[in-house]
Specification:
Distance between the termini: 30 Å
Order of helices and strands: EEEEHEEEHHEHHEHEHHEEHH
Largest sheet: 7 strands, mixed
Radius of gyration: 22 Å
Number of strands: 12
Strand content: 25-35%
CATH class of the largest domain: Alpha Beta
Helix content: 25-40%
CATH superfamily of the largest domain: Uracil-DNA glycosylase-like domain
Number of helices: 10
Bound molecules: uracil
Length: about 325
């Protein structure tokens, strides 16, 4: 059997309040834009090029969504196992479909119509995954827009720059720190300073890929001079964190430091509890698991904490099947 790997982008747009997906026609069969990876090309690079060649649309896909379609077919008597890595991308304003000769037409279909008309199960599964993921994108961007407005309040003493959570919106593992630092405030990305470097090392110890976890903090605005956020600040920000957890709906939350552990689990003594898995109540009423550990900044500041952190993350790895 021969193996092939292709990549593509499932394009969507909004028209008159409806979410529509771009479906390509080849004779009577329906497909999405995709094609072979050329030598030296990355997956995303191939997806962008193929989409442009087939549809005339230049689109940068969502950084985190990935969906693999796999199927086996026969061509000229040979059995071929194909994996197609699909990304999603929203149709940029001003872009229009200009089909290549490979396809005979295109359709913009809503979810129900596409589900009905796709004959091929891998297409249906892609559509289902993409549609749910776009729901999450829209909920999260609405949440971030509301959260950002918190920083416009008069008397606000945190930075006015929101550092939103970052990572796949369907991550199995979510990491919750305390509050961004000065580097994060400039780059608007969580954990990119020294504590971030330590976190990256610890994630490797646990066998976790940073690109596959969702990373955020209890307070998502920088408290100047790295002071701890006040109770009022935590209280103002907490509903947004709870809603983020609800959107991502992770199987496991990792809380970093005492503040995150306290607000998520109600426990208060991190040096006694670190390394444990505690229950975490979601706003939906459902319960998930929270692995509690020290904040990586504690390891940056005091060497003795590095060993504790490493042991916790080794333990985390052994807590079977977290990803
Ligand atoms: N520490 C945190 O708790 N969050 C960040 O984003 C960075 C450092």
């Amino acid at each position: 059997m021969r193996f092939e790997h292709s990549c593509g982008i499932f394009i969507y747009t909004h028209k008159e309040g409806r979410r529509l997906f771009l479906i390509l026609k080849r004779g009577r069969s329906l497909d999405v834009s995709k094609g072979h990876i050329e030598s030296g090309e990355s997956e995303v690079g191939a997806a962008i090029r193929e989409t442009f060649e087939e549809t005339g649309i230049k689109v940068i896909p969502d950084r985190f969504f990935r969906h693999n379609m796999t199927y086996v077919f026969r061509a000229d008597g040979e059995l071929i196992k194909k994996r197609v890595t699909m990304f999603i991308g929203e149709l940029p304003k001003e872009e229009k479909v200009m089909l290549s000769h490979e396809h005979t037409g295109f359709l913009w279909m809503d979810f129900d119509e596409a589900m009905k008309r796709f004959r091929f199960n891998p297409h249906k599964r892609l559509l289902l995954h993409a549609n749910l993921y776009i729901d999450r994108i829209e909920r999260m961007s609405g949440l971030n827009a509301r959260y950002m407005r918190l920083g416009e309040r008069t008397g606000w003493t945190l930075s006015r720059n929101l550092v939103p959570g970052c990572g796949p919106l369907d991550a199995k593992v979510m990491i919750v720190g305390q509050a961004p630092g000065a580097n994060e405030d400039v780059r608007r990305v969580p954990f990119v300073g020294r504590a971030g470097e330590m976190l990256n090392r610890l994630l490797k110890t646990a066998g976790l890929d940073r690109n596959r976890v969702y990373i955020t903090s209890v307070v998502q605005f920088f408290p100047e001079n790295n002071r701890a956020p006040t109770e009022e600040e935590v209280e103002a920000c907490l509903p947004f964190l709870r809603e983020q957890i609800d959107i991502v709906d992770p199987k496991l939350v990792i809380s970093l430091g005492n503040v995150a552990m306290r607000v998520l689990t109600g426990e208060d003594r991190i040096m006694e509890r670190h390394g444990e898995v505690l229950p975490l109540k979601l706003i939906s009423g459902r319960e998930t698991r929270c692995f509690v550990t020290l904040h990586p900044a504690a390891g940056v500041r005091f060497k003795k904490n590095v060993r504790l952190l490493e042991n916790d993350f080794k333990r985390l790895k052994s807590l079977n099947k977290i990803h």
